[in-house]
What does this fold into?
Amino acid sequence: MGCLQSKTANVQSPDQEPSQPDSKPDLANGDQVDQDQVPAFKEFGLAELRAATNGFSSDLIVSESGEKAPNVVYRGKLRSNRLVAIKRFSKQSWPDPQQFVAEAAGVGKVRHKRLVNLIGCCAEGDERLLVAEYMPNDTLSKHLFHWDKQPLPWEMRVRVAHHIAQALDHCNTENRKIYHDLNAYRVLFDEDGDPRLSSFGLMKNSRDGKSYSTNLAYTPPEFLRTGRVIPESVIYSYGTVLLDLLSGKHIPPSHALDLIRGKNVLLLMDSSLEGQYANEDATALVELASKCLQYEARDRPDVKFLLTGVAPLQKQKEVASHVLMGLTKTPVVLPTLLSPLGKACARMDLTAVHDILLKTGYKDEEGAENELSFQEWTQQVQDMLNTKKFGDIAFRDKDFKSAIDYYSKLVSMMSVPSGTVFVRRALSYLMIGQPELALRDAMQAQVCLPEWPTAFYMQALALSKLGMETDAQDMLNDGASFEAKKQNSWRN
It folds into this structure.
């Protein structure tokens, strides 16, 4: 049964009051993230995250060398096959587990297409972990400082500057004005090659610890003076990232400002670009960096000014990021739903599902009915057959409450459970608005028949009704895979 829990980790027991569905965030400028792709924030169990990282294997560490944060980020794969990034804090970072979960849940509400969205956390024992979307195409640091095939083109550098500004602007609208230690390691590239800002930076490295882990030469002056981070500190750090984008090197701000004041802007520019940029655009970005790096916090611009400054510099907005970066984009191809039942479940057409189950009957349980004929003919067997008959009649006539009663009685009588009975009772529960119980029965059907596509499709239907769209899609895919396997075996 353990393998069946992955899709239902945040499903409540049927005995609990159903929780209110999470409301989808109302994002500014229509930048709604795809809720089918980004699951709702949840608390994970430590066992699941340990399994996802092969016991926190050092082979799965994805933080690049050079980042001096005291915490480690792993690549992991959840039981749903979703790839995630898991940040593991030092044990002393957050002594109070409730405070950690509350802080993480607050960050988890901030959703945007320009952010690497936080999808969960874990505070169990001494462990404190954050779980976020996985970005497969490395960090800005890798593409700027450690590139192999080609330097990051100018247009992509401008796009990075714009996307970061958009992410920070959205964080401001969500009243998350503090971003800790913004640097080239915090910008990651998704499967489309689009740059996104890590949501990890919205949360401090510890309850009372330092907010900056990079070299002091890049730290905002006011943090060095007071130890406090203010919204203007984020602007300063944005300026250091602009320097990275301009130079392709990690130049201390003081040295960069000396070059700017001396009108030696060309000395600041990345030579690997080989002049493939407009001088006026480079000058505009240099001037913006200079404004961000002002010593006094009050002299720095706000985020809206950053957006206004970088938006006009984009000249190839119609070119996809993966094309600009020379990345090979491999589209995710979902298995084809082969059967009418799979398609009916995918479109959540309960009436069509009912019709198909009626036509299918019990034929998928090979030998199950024949088994009865070899048993000693007793009154108990007669009662069981009558109960099944009345249940099937009620199911056929769409008297779903009666069907549930008869099938429940039948389940208690049968020595060998029937997957078809569980599936029929699952659909009956869905018809009367009890998806938690439907999911439980669909899982029981899978126990009876481990590779039965119908059991997977019914779980998908129940998960969709519970609002767990990503897990529902995983179940549809599993059902389709078993169906394809069965068809291939027939052909062979």
